[in-house]
Design brief:
The protein is an alpha/beta fold. The chain is built from twelve helices and ten strands. The protein has two domains: about 1-110, Rossmann fold (3-Layer(aba) Sandwich); about 120-275 and about 310-333, Isopropylmalate Dehydrogenase. The strands form two sheets. It has an eight-stranded mixed beta sheet, with helices on both faces. A hairpin with a 4-residue loop joins strand 9 and strand 10. Helix 1 packs across helix 2 (about 30-40), helix 1 crosses helix 11 and helix 4 (about 75-85) runs parallel beside helix 5 (about 95-110).
């Protein structure tokens, strides 16, 4: 029920996902009357799409503590409860990020050895391979130990989902030199340099995010969220500039027609919808955060991300490997 659009986006995206994945079963959690109205005149298999009524919804500007205390029958809380109870294998929400993180952490708890969950998502690169970055906003204030744990979790996820044997992990910084950066980054680098838990490759700067030099980039949630929103803004900026330039006059329209294959490829690679669906990594269950303003195709991508993580059994894999990797980190020899 959350997000900027709610059921008018979630319902058609769900129907689209069901058509694409024959093995998929979905539970729509929210106001029964509203959801039934959205499904009216739609063709779908009722055995694969069911409704779980929830009488409340978390508003986008509502505080996480308020949502936890007074919205125990919200669509968000009920959906996460279904994951805890084993009725569902994953939860996808476009709702209030803070409330989603707080509720998921309260209900599902973090994995052993993990202090805080983090938000991790995929970014495109010039090399053609995807890069994963965390934290993208879950933890504004982090310690070196937290960033170290993020690095381990990101490495495990990249290995499991992207089939990379030894994911290359980098720390986002304002320079490559050891003397650059704040105390948080320097202390985290020291921890990563002393361990074999991840394949640490040093610092990486903001202008290299999309080069494909790293498989996983680690930062605190404040920096990561700024980088994420700036990237989305730049993609929209470039798309609008191209549209404005190519529709200026008859000549530019002809130029657009000639270069259409290149333009389509560019727009496709830069389309934020293709990378929608960030994982709240570090929890005992799978929770996927969709962008609040996601449209149908974008929300469908978030569902696909959840499917992949279910198929790869990400929480169990992280739980097993994190325990081993963190144990290794304490014994560098």
């Amino acid at each position: 029920m959350g997000g900027d659009h709610g059921p008018p986006v979630v319902v058609p995206a769900s129907l689209q996902a069901l058509k694409k994945c024959p093995a998929l079963h979905l539970i729509l959690v929210g106001d029964n009357d509203v959801l039934q109205e959205q499904l009216r005149n739609q063709s779908y298999d009722a055995s694969r799409l069911t409704i779980q009524h929830a009488s409340q919804r978390v508003e986008m500007d509502e505080s996480p503590s308020q949502a936890l205390r007074s919205k125990k029958d919200s669509s968000m809380r009920v959906a996460i409860n279904l994951v805890k109870e084993g009725v569902a294998e994953a939860c996808i929400s476009a709702g209030n990020t803070g409330a989603l993180m707080a509720t998921a952490r309260f209900v599902l708890k973090t994995l052993p050895g993990i202090d805080r969950p983090a938000i991790i998502s995929t970014f495109p690169t010039l090399s053609g391979k995807n890069m994963r970055m965390l934290d993208l906003g879950a933890n504004v204030d982090s310690s070196p130990e937290h960033l170290f744990q993020f690095a381990v979790m990101g490495s495990v996820l990249a290995s499991a989902v992207d089939n990379i044997k030894e994911p290359k992990v980098c720390l986002l910084n304002i320079g490559h030199e050891d003397i650059k950066g704040n105390e948080l980054v320097k202390a985290t680098a020291q921890l990563l340099n002393q361990t074999k838990a991840v394949c640490y490759a040093g610092y990486i700067e903001g202008d290299q995010l999309y080069q494909g030099d790293a498989d996983v980039i680690v930062c605190d949630g404040f920096v990561g969220n700024v980088a994420l929103k700036a990237s989305e803004g730049i993609a929209i900026f470039i798309r609008n500039l191209l549209k404005e330039g190519y529709t200026r006059n008859l000549f530019t329209k002809f130029a657009a027609l000639v270069s259409m294959p290149i333009l389509k490829s560019l727009v496709k690679r830069m389309d934020p919808d293709r990378y929608n669906g960030a994982c709240l990594i570090g929890l005992t269950g799978i929770v996927i955060k969709s962008h609040g303003g996601a449209k149908i195709s974008a929300f469908a991508h978030a569902i696909e991300e959840a499917i992949v993580q279910v198929e790869k059994n990400i929480p169990q894999r992280i739980s097993t490997e994190v325990e081993q990797l963190l144990k290794l980190s304490r014994d560098p020899s």
